């Protein structure tokens, strides 16, 4: 039977940029600007790919998936970072940390698999142009996208659960700006 993790009742302190308190406001503004640009840019790609009939191709289908993935990925950690930079509280609940770790791992893995799928799409377009329409039919593209998402979230469930089964020493400080496996294991 597994032992109860001693930090499960509390919180973690995300040290992040706390060594440079005089830079926290500047970092907050810069990171917020880049976060908003990321949101607007990715939403623009998704909306444009959806509205323009000329862009209803496998390449733009996968690019829209990648843009949505990027929206989710940045949103899984940046808002917590902004909260920690803005105020004196630098904490995240144990549950919040578990959820953040799960989504960061899931979305990161999904991105890797989706990039492999996108490279296969480009390979088929360049090296098999006469067979491209048959190889990359809409049903197969949707299947590849679903497989990317499912594999990312399944792998993350295993990886994050193994990370939180490791007994913690009671030390609640995480020397990072979000919940990441190496920082939590230290």
TrEMBL record:
What GO annotations for molecular function exist for this entry?
G protein-coupled receptor activity; olfactory receptor activity
Bilayer topology term: Multi-pass membrane protein
* Origin: domain of life: Eukaryota
Q: What is the lineage of its organism?
A: Eukaryota, Metazoa, Chordata, Craniata, Vertebrata
GO annotations of cellular component type: plasma membrane
Q: Where are the transmembrane segments?
A: 25-48, 60-79, 99-120, 140-158
In which family does this protein belong, per the annotation? Belongs to the G-protein coupled receptor 1 family.
| Pfam families per record | 7tm_1
Report the InterPro entries cross-referenced here. Answer: GPCR_Rhodpsn (IPR000276), GPCR_Rhodpsn_7TM (IPR017452), Olfact_rcpt (IPR000725)
| Residue ranges occupied by any G-protein coupled receptors family 1 profile domain in the UniProt entry | 41-186
Quote the subcellular location field of this record: Cell membrane
Main function: Putative odorant or sperm cell receptor.
By its UniProt entry, which Gene3D superfamilies does this protein fall under? Answer: Rhodopsin 7-helix transmembrane proteins
Full protein name: G-protein coupled receptors family 1 profile domain-containing protein
> Keywords for this entry?
Cell membrane, G-protein coupled receptor, Membrane, Olfaction, Receptor, Sensory transduction, Transducer, Transmembrane, Transmembrane helix
């Amino acid at each position: 039977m597994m032992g109860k993790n001693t930090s499960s009742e509390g919180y973690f302190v995300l040290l992040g940029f706390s060594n440079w308190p005089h830079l926290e406001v500047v970092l907050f503004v810069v990171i917020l600007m880049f976060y908003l640009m990321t949101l607007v840019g990715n939403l623009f790609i998704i909306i444009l790919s959806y509205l323009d009939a000329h862009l209803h191709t496998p390449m733009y289908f996968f690019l829209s998936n990648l843009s949505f993935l990027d929206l989710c990925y940045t949103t899984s950690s940046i808002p917590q970072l902004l909260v920690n930079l803005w105020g004196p509280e630098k904490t995240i609940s144990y549950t919040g940390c578990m959820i953040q770790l799960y989504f960061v791992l899931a979305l990161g893995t999904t991105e890797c698999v989706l990039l492999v799928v996108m490279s296969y799409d480009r390979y088929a377009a360049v090296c098999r142009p006469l067979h491209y329409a048959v190889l990359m039919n809409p049903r197969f593209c949707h299947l590849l996208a679903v497989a990317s998402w499912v594999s990312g979230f399944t792998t993350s469930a295993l990886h994050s659960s193994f990370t939180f089964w490791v007994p913690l020493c009671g030390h609640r400080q995480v020397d990072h700006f979000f919940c990441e496996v190496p920082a939590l294991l230290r």
